[in-house]
Amino acid sequence: MDFAPDAATRKRVEQLSQLGRAQIRPLGLEADRLGRPTPPDHPFFDLLIQLGQGRTRWSEESEAKSRDASRSRGGSSLVTLCLAEELSYWDRGVAVSFPGPGLAEPSILSMGTPDQKRRFLGPFVEPDRPRWGSFAMTEPGAGSDVAGIEASARKDGRHWVLNGAKSFAANASRADWIVVFATVDRSLGREGHRAFVVERGAPGLGNFAIERKMGLKAYESTSFTLEDCRLPGENLLGGEEHYARRAGFRGAMKSFNATRPMVAAMAVGIGRAAFDEARVFAREHGRLADARVRDRLERIRRRLRAARLLCWRAAWLADRAQPNILEASMAKAVAPEVALEAACLGMEILGEVGARGDHLIEKLFRDVKAMDIVEGTGQIQRIIMARRLVKLPSERG
Q1: What's the average model confidence in pLDDT over 21-27?
Q2: Could you give the residue numbers annotated as active site?
């Protein structure tokens, strides 16, 4: 088992580091100061497209040949984690605002038909402009308990009609399309779940509102509504036969098992940034003479490295199509906790400087809390791990 990034990945990480120092962190600080997301027409996004960012892992070759073809294009989960960690080191809010299919991509890759992958991911292979995809599961009344979603889907001839409300969907108002989960019958629980691709301009899709957040202000967290939103049958992700295999909720969970390690790796990136800034401040202000400060810094460095290995283990299993639900939950439960500890220590070391609101650690302190919430809270991850430990059945079906 070898987690070491190859030479090509290390080169990409170094390139992102240079971009992060020159543009990503300054852009994140600017968005935080202004209190709003980076506009979609910002020149930074055009630059990213020129640099080859904003692309999908899918390709015609990977579809026609094998899953290994996508790995040769740098699309493995382990590679993605390395890049996500480095981007989040410089600014996680800016990282999430990057053009690309985003968190919706795993759903389309795991559930979509070949034609759907071609239709929705094809434009991201060689994008002609900044493009975004979005993923919408969370609702005002259903967050970590995704089995409780209330957005409804009704079959009407060859079409589907969606009604409901979604919230905290990243980049939704600027996206070409949004992967939306809805239910055909709430009494069926998870078995009633269906996933749809709702394209920009679909009738009934609207009321977009960008949420105000205490941190991660560089990207938009969007709420929107679906009011008799009418979709063609071919926008049902996976097609009817996919759900005949009772795969709706499992498709969502498979997506989470791919994205949770990525979110955990992002937390590691934020934690590294807080650790580095705290160490620099402590050195410049003579705090390293205190053995307790040195001990706590060393503890955080150890824990960050351990959290990274948990992320890499979950990604390593995903790349080999092996079950990783336990490992994904372990990574997601541990990494944000360590990152928060790093930010808290940084604030303690800053002392009254941290209360001024003009130091990077203070921003990281506000940014990091979201990492424990998104993609399933730490409490939910602990429930998943405990159920695996004592072999309890799943929650309500």
Answers
A1: 98
A2: 375
